[in-house]
């Protein structure tokens, strides 16, 4: 596909991708592999792409792993494979319980992992909750699951019996997570109607504290920070785990080259 395109040209193409693109980190890791033989250039390339996508946690995860690796090209290939074979949705679907009559599953927005989780869970009635930071309509138009999903506001009476409330995380740190703006208010509104509240992450979303702080300090419109104590479980590629245990299981290093201010784009 890329033919004779140079690594720099590929990287410029990646920087123009939308920050909401689920495939951004994998594309970036593949492009950054072109700088693997030039450590100084790899650092500059990583910082450049991060300057354009400051709140994209999987991109920080991929860059940190490449910069810390003895063989960056191998690390890039591994990162791409892990990102493209993320099992979060599959394991979330397998873990969601059977529901009693009248119970539903609700998701803030309609994240890709929730869509994948519902592919074989025809027994579950699910609704997508609209909040200030995310309108699920666009994601629902391209969903893979065959569910008929209703979009509701946090005060809708249908949310009176929520077995699980699923909240997508843009980034997860040791004590806080970045979630769509309006999530905290939605949690207060739905409140005791939810039996459990699960944070939904995925490959590259859980970051060590210092990298998470870099992401959170660059937080853009549409995201807000919320305490991890608000959640009962974290759904990720390993399955659904206790929140603090899962947040402590970090699989990328802290790289000093990424802790300096990224500067202007």
Structural summary, described in words:
The chain is an alpha/beta fold and 265 residues long. It has 2 domains: 7-85, Four Helix Bundle (Hemerythrin (Met), subunit A); 88-248, Translation initiation factor eif-2b, domain 2 (Rossmann fold, 3-Layer(aba) Sandwich), CATH 3.40.50.10470. It is 37% helix and 17% strand. It is built from 11 helices and 10 strands. It has helices spanning 7-15, 24-32, 39-52, 57-68, 72-84, 88-95, 112-117, 137-141, 183-190, 209-217, 243-248; strands at 104-108, 126-129, 150-152, 162-168, 171-172, 176-180, 194-200, 223-227, 233-236, 239-242. It has a 7-stranded mixed beta sheet with strand order 3-2-1-4-7-9-10. Strand 2, helix 8 and strand 3 form a beta-alpha-beta unit. It is elongated and about 60 Å long. The mean pLDDT is 92.
Briefly note the CATH topology name of the largest domain: Rossmann fold
Note the run of SSEs as H and E.
HHHHHHEHEHEEEEHEHEEEH
Please give the largest β-sheet.
7 strands, mixed
Q: Which homologous superfamily in CATH is the superfamily of the largest domain?
A: Translation initiation factor eif-2b, domain 2
Count of alpha and pi helical runs: 11
Percent strand: 15-25%
**Strand order, largest beta sheet:** 3-2-1-4-7-9-10
Radius of gyration, whole Å: 19 Å
Given the C-alpha coordinates, what overall shape results? elongated
Q: Are there runs of 5+ residues with pLDDT below 50, and where?
A: none
First-last Cα distance: 28 Å
Q: Quickly count the domains.
A: 2
């Amino acid at each position: 596909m890329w033919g004779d395109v140079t690594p720099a040209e590929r990287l410029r193409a990646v920087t123009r991708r939308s920050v909401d693109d689920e495939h951004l980190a994998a594309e970036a890791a593949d492009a950054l592999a072109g700088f693997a033989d030039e450590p100084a250039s790899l650092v500059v390339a990583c910082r450049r792409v991060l300057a354009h996508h400051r709140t994209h946690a999987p991109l920080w995860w991929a860059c940190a792993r490449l910069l810390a690796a003895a063989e960056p090209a191998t690390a890039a290939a591994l990162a791409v494979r892990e990102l493209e074979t993320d099992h979060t949705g599959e394991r979330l679907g397998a873990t969601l319980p059977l529901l009693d009559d009248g119970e539903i599953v609700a998701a803030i927005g309609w994240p890709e992992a929730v869509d994948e989780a519902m592919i074989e869970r025809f027994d579950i009635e699910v609704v997508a909750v609209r909040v200030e930071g995310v309108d699920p309509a666009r994601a629902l138009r391209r969903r893979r699951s065959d569910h008929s999903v209703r979009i509701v506001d946090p005060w809708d009476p249908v949310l009176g019996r929520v077995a699980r409330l699923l909240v997508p995380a843009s980034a997860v740190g040791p004590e806080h997570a970045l979630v769509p703006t309006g999530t905290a208010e939605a949690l207060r509104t739905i409140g005791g109607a939810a039996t459990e509240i699960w944070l939904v992450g995925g490959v590259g979303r859980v970051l060590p504290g210092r990298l998470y702080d870099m992401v959170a300090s660059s937080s853009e419109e549409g995201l807000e920070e919320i305490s991890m104590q608000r959640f009962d479980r974290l759904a990720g590629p390993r399955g659904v785990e206790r929140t603090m245990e899962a947040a402590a299981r970090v699989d990328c290093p802290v790289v000093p080259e990424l802790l300096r201010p990224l500067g202007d784009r």
